[in-house]
Amino acid sequence: MNKDFLLFKFDKVSSTQDLAKILSKDTDYEFAVSAKTQSGGYGRRKTKWFSPPGGIYLTLCLKRNISPADLPKISVKTAFAVKEYLDSLAIKSEIKHPNDIMAYINKEKRKICGILCETSKENGIYRIFVGVGLNLNNKAPKRCTAVSVFEILKTKTDEEEAEKSLISLIRKAF
Length: 174
What we know:
Helix 2 (about 75-90) packs across helix 4 (about 160-174). The protein has helices at about 15-25, 75-90, 150-155, 160-174, and strands spanning about 5-15, 30-40, 55-65, 95, 100-105, 110-120, 125-135. The protein has about 170 residues and is an alpha+beta fold. The chain is about 25% helix and about 35% strand.
């Protein structure tokens, strides 16, 4: 990263989204929070996000002066950034509006990524919390209709490189 963007890395947190909101109160920098696992990861409507080791659990805190009319576009821009990353791995995927990425395995669509975007406003500037949960090297539970990059490619993907790529693509989208 660079001096204008910080990355806070943890082994385990309750939720990268919640931690990013707490940390945002003490900094003017844009930053990201990542964790190897989450004990209380969640999606829209507070649905639990299964967060075992091997996944990417990441929340970016971005500061933008944007129009309220553009707020709904945050999730879409993030989804396109994640899809661009998956495309770079030659994984066929599609965006399931409003906040999921589905990938194909054996001609079947399965969830590979969930996105959670939330905002707060301070002095006319929006803090945008962009949460991404990507199934990377983990195996999806049998009872689940999810899939991971590992299950599709049959090889492990460097987690640190994946994280850097996602952060870069998401920041570029904004």
